[in-house]
Design brief:
With 245 residues, the chain is of the alpha/beta class. It has two domains: 23-51 and 68-211, 3-Layer(aba) Sandwich (Rossmann fold), CATH 3.40.50.720; 214-244, no CATH class. 37% of the residues lie in helices and 16% in strands. The protein contains seven helices and seven strands. It has helices at 25-35, 71-91, 120-144, 163-168, 177-189, 216-221, 227-234, and strands at residues 2-6, 9-14, 40-43, 102-107, 146-153, 197-201, 204-207. The strands form two sheets. It has a five-stranded mixed sheet, with helices on both faces. A two-stranded antiparallel sheet has the order 1-2. The longest helix is centred in the middle third of the chain and has 25 residues, at 120-144. It comes from Lophiotrema nucula. This is 15-hydroxyprostaglandin dehydrogenase. Belongs to the short-chain dehydrogenases/reductases (SDR) family. Keywords: NADP, Oxidoreductase.
Length: 245
């Protein structure tokens, strides 16, 4: 662990956190013990596919193909779920003038909204993040004063994108890190924003609407909370105004 110091006061601490394991709880515990509260979780880790689901180079083989390497799903989605649950636990313990609650911002991707054939597993993991955020947002805000949102960057010049791919894209199609930081700051500073998915494209931000189902009320019924089921799964009523009793 390293620390940055201003005067005699430690203002930051850096710790390794095993994102694919629930043992990251130890990191949350250390942070809470050091600062007395956790106000924000920025779930920003991400990697792309480590193996090919297409197994094109296995076409002529009679052998069972090798097991897929699902580290991308473990980091990009499972790590978000683990981190979110741990953040909920500690944000409930926050005290002082600000009281309980906090902000969670998850980095998804535009590929989680419109899939990219080069990275099928990445598409699925980031789409899972988008729907996970939308799925938990109402309950977390209502019951625990926790706001959760997702940010979906476009093409950003990071280590997971080959330089040759960056070179092949015209400059106006690249998204600078500053746009993503601005979206994060928006989510962290605006208490009215929760359950939102924000596309970051070039220097712009856009709220993305949830997909609509085709058969109106009949379709919507399938995704409306039936409170007895919610209580069975989560041991407490949802409290949502449109829940079916």
């Amino acid at each position: 662990m390293s620390q940055t110091t201003i005067g005699a006061q430690h203002c930051s601490a850096f710790q390794d956190a095993p994102l694919t394991s629930y043992s990251q709880a130890e990191t949350f515990q250390k942070v809470f013990e050091k600062y007395g509260r956790i106000d924000a979780l920025c779930a920003n880790a991400g990697i792309v596919d480590r193996s090919s689901i297409y197994i094109l180079d296995h076409r002529d083989s009679d052998q069972i193909p090798p097991k897929p390497d699902l580290l991308c799903t473990d980091v990009d989605y499972k790590g978000v779920v683990y981190g979110t649950q741990l953040a909920i636990h500690f944000m409930r313990k926050n005290s002082g003038n600000a009281g309980p609650g906090g902000k969670i911002v998850c980095t998804a991707s535009v590929a989680g909204v419109v899939p990219h054939p080069s990275y099928p597993e990445y598409n699925g993991a980031k789409a899972a993040v988008v729907n996970f955020v939308r799925g938990v947002a109402q309950i977390l805000k209502k019951k625990d004063n926790i706001s959760i949102n997702a940010v979906c960057p476009g093409i950003v010049h990071t280590n997971i994108i080959p330089q040759a791919m960056i070179d092949a894209v015209s400059s106006e199609c690249l998204t600078p890190v500053s746009t993503i930081v601005a979206a994060y700051e928006r989510c962290l500073n605006d208490d009215s924003i929760f359950g939102k998915v924000i596309e970051c494209s070039a220097d712009k931000q856009f709220f993305l609407d949830t997909a609509t189902l085709a058969n109106g009320r009949v379709s919507q019924r399938a995704v409306t909370v039936w409170d007895p089921l919610f209580k069975m799964c989560h041991h407490e009523s949802s409290g949502l105004p449109d829940a079916i009793p």
